[in-house]
Specification:
The structure is a homodimer. By secondary structure, chain A is mostly helical. Chain A has 2 domains: 2-73, Arc Repressor Mutant, subunit A, CATH 1.10.10; 90-124, no CATH class. Helices cover 59% and strands 9% of the residues of chain A. Chain A has 6 helices and 3 strands, in the order αβααββααα. In chain A, a hairpin with a 2-residue loop joins β2 and β3. The structure holds a DNA duplex.
Amino acid sequence: MCGSAEKIQDAELEVMQVLWDSPQPVPLAELRRVLGQQRGWEDSTVKTLLRRLCGKGAVALERRGMYRAVLTRAEYSRWSARRLVGKLFDGSAKQLVASLLSDGQLSEADIAELSALLHGEDGK
Amino acid sequence: MCGSAEKIQDAELEVMQVLWDSPQPVPLAELRRVLGQQRGWEDSTVKTLLRRLCGKGAVALERRGMYRAVLTRAEYSRWSARRLVGKLFDGSAKQLVASLLSDGQLSEADIAELSALLHGEDGK
DNA sequence: CTTGAAAGTTTACTGTTGTAGTCTAATCAA
DNA sequence: TTGATTAGACTACAACAGTAAACTTTCAAG
């Protein structure tokens, strides 16, 4: 069903990040506190974003005042990576990796670890 | 100066793709033809998008009726990859690659080629 | 020159996103 | 039971994005 994965907007993503940073459902008060501090958002802004995210099925109201991420960071990240590859790397993830590499985004240590992953060590 | 890289919207990106697909400046008539066919856009839509892209400095009017991409696909792709990494992979390109891998986005052949790249063969 | 087509410019309209006020319903303490 | 606090729902509004019509300028052909 998640095929329809509605796009998460920038502001909404900020809310998801907070939810993702906690293994437990997060109380509204906490969201308000963190986002108010980090982004200077008013109470109603946070509530509006939560409402929109619930509408998109990315967040669920666990119980009164407790919100939980339905869409996981891993899912969304994977989906975003695929979309980027499709849009800008001609559908080739390899090209994306090559770009990261030539852009100096991978340190020597990263390369070493990735080499291991690419070979034996099952990446999952 | 391109530091201010204004964000390219989805519709605008379609236009860029056509420009990127040609090494030469592209005549408006051609853009209209391709985008009219691919997206069903009216003449004025294409013109509006071109104007907005010119405003963002991503496209230039080479001469009457001839448009040229100023922002290159490589530049924009690189920038987008960095942004994705920053937003969803904790700033670690390595994590993005690991995600692609565990998501099965890299074929055996891709992995072989990347291994070569990661080692000796300069990725540029 | 005049005119007509193509290019360029202005204006427009709807839906979405960022941000937030307000009103109502639920809850908790006294 | 009532009053205060908090959560949820509804409304708002400007900026931007997607889409396009209408108007104006330019240029080449006749």
